[in-house]
Amino acid sequence: MKFDFTKTKTLKATLYFNNILIEQPIRSFIKSINQAEVFNRWLLLHRLVKYAKLIKDIDWDRTWKCFAFSSYNKQSETSFSESKIKAFKIKIMNNNLPVLENLKIRRPDLYGNGWTCISCRQENETQQHLWLCNNNQQMVKEIIEKCKKYISEKIKSLKHYNNKDHNINKILSDICWDPYYDEQKITFLDLINGIIPKSLTNNIYKITCCNESTTNITNIIMETIIINIYKDIWKPRCELVIQEEIKENITKRMKLKKENKKKKKEKIKKKRKDLDQSNPINETYLSISSWISWVDSWIKIGNQWEIYVS
Ligand SMILES: [Zn+2]
Questions:
Q1: d(CA 193, CA 233)
Q2: pLDDT tens string 186-201
Q3: Span 234-251, mean pLDDT?
Q4: Where are the domains of the chain?
């Protein structure tokens, strides 16, 4: 097919999605449907099966807003860059932090099975163990208290706040503040991953009666969590691992040395196989084309497609 663009002055095109006329700007519409499709594919990954299963319990709109939010680069008391925290957020959300259990898989030539949690020396260091390790529990508890204190103060400062409002107790006793792992529920471990449950935002909204204030509160809470987790747990852990590596004669150069090509190919092949096998598991909860119904509702009802993820 050829177009003669000198003769297209009067050519008009109309965009339809699922037989519905698109009235909004085409460029931003295409961008949004692309985001919805990428998100759909991401949620089908094997390691995210819990979130696919609990898709209806998660406030995806605010989860993404918090993911994109940052105010700390303006705060003088923090010494790490915005890009470092952003990279940390992405790794945590994808369960892809370079914890020792991941390093054992990536670099078995450097990290043998003898490597266990650098802090307790008892358990294998998975991402989950980092937040549950006995030696980090106090720190996690303090982060939770900090967040709860922020919410209480913020809510009590609202002009229309009523002392008899029991919703504040509902917010503070939500299971999302409990630091343990639960396959069926969104707990504090999921908040660390960046995932926000609807139970929390619904109860905050009941008091603020304002979407923007609710989002502002969740933005600050999630930022407080990620910065403190990074500063109080991840950074000190990395320093301890480096000391251990020095003892084991693992140099920076060895760590940077690329694995041989054959090994890398085998690993990619294995990863692809894992992904292929994982898709049917998550497809019990959503399909590869779920994004079409999210976008469809968005066009018909309005607001944003993230609201219709369910
Ligand atoms: Zn430990």
A1: 14
A2: 999 999 999 999 999 9
A3: 94
A4: 56-258
